[in-house]
């Protein structure tokens, strides 16, 4: 006889009232929250030591489905508490209170979960509890025992969104609630193009006046990148500093991938930039020239033969610049001239950019010039797309104008841990350097 069965018989003998039928309930606190906030998930009314399966599902705005599942054993009073109990198997193993959320995987591998309408609707995550079964193709073989729906918002109550169409600038400005002046941040994404707002709306939800800035592939902006004009981004900095709800004298930048290339150049050339967050970005100009007031940075040479296609047919570019040498000197930005501070965030399993090497090159350039205005956060197991906490790992997706199947890299559990830690550090960094008197409390 299994030891669990012996313990159960002893328990029921001493607690006969527990032998009567109880209603199985699935609860979450809070049910409605920002996507970067944790939720306490519990199941009650189970049979002591019963093994159950928990499933989460989400449908994005395009109808793409994402699923996760994990198996848990109830304790001696018939409860499962994800804050204290460990998953026995499924999409993750061990104690991970938010594992059901960050382990969501797309039905189609090449699908990135990205919220478009951040203001008017949340993502809904459906949680379901079943008896233990082998869940194949996300189709349970036993009856549903309990369920509930979480609302995961990208904007806090009171945050306002202002569409920006000033001169040639295109974007969306998010302002926190309240009368006060707020630290200003420009939010830049990479080669995917368009206007991406979910990180800016979250930053505004935490007290930053945040401008999600488009720079190609949106409205009347160029459909493809042929050149990067840094004066466009300088205009965005001045626009933000002129806003009556933005406090100066400095502006922050939060950037990733191609956006981080631009963010690095902004920090080097624009004295108003006092805090720059660079997530998995290059140290030099990539692909197309960058121009600022007549000076041209030509793209660094690369070795096309170093492109890798893995066993799943996914393209990896992280070795592309390994043979790049001294001839790339005209592609490097004069970051030693930056008057602000840098936060380099590196995913060591990035398959798109060798971001660890690039961060090391940038830091060495600063050190050679006697600068110590940098912080490095390097995460083993994290991939390219380091996003706000509890975002599912996007292992691969396509960029319409470039490639249909990029491998971004990352391992699910360490990537999730990196996102949670990095998001807190980003906010502390921005507050420290944009609000000198701030206590850096979240």
SSE topology sketch:
Blueprint: H1 3-14, E1 25-29, E2 32-34, E3 40-44, E4 51-59, E5 65-73, E6 80-81, E7 89-90, H2 99-102, E8 105-106, E9 123-131, E10 144-153, E11 160-166, E12 169-175, E13 182-188, H3 198-205, E14 209-213, E15 228-229, H4 230-242, E16 246-256, H5 258-269, E17 273-279, E18 290-292, E19 295-297, E20 308-309, E21 315-316, E22 341-347, H6 355-368, E23 374-379, E24 396-399, E25 403-407, H7 412-434
Parallel strand pairs: 2-10, 13-14, 13-16, 15-18, 16-17, 17-22, 22-23
Antiparallel strand pairs: 1-3, 3-6, 4-5, 4-9, 5-7, 5-8, 9-10, 11-12, 12-14, 18-19, 20-21, 24-25
- N-C termini distance: 51 Å
Structural class: alpha/beta
Query: What is the strand tally?
Result: 25
Question: What is the 3D shape?
Answer: globular
Radius of gyration: 24 Å
The order of strands across the largest sheet is 11-12-14-13-16-17-22-23
State the share of residues found in helices, binned by percent.
10-25%
- On the 0 to 100 scale, the average pLDDT is 92
Oligomer: single chain
Characterize the main sheet: 8 strands, mixed
Strand percentage lies at 25-35%
What are the low-pLDDT stretches, counting only 5+ consecutive residues below 50? 16-20, 438-442
**Count of separate DSSP helical elements:** 7
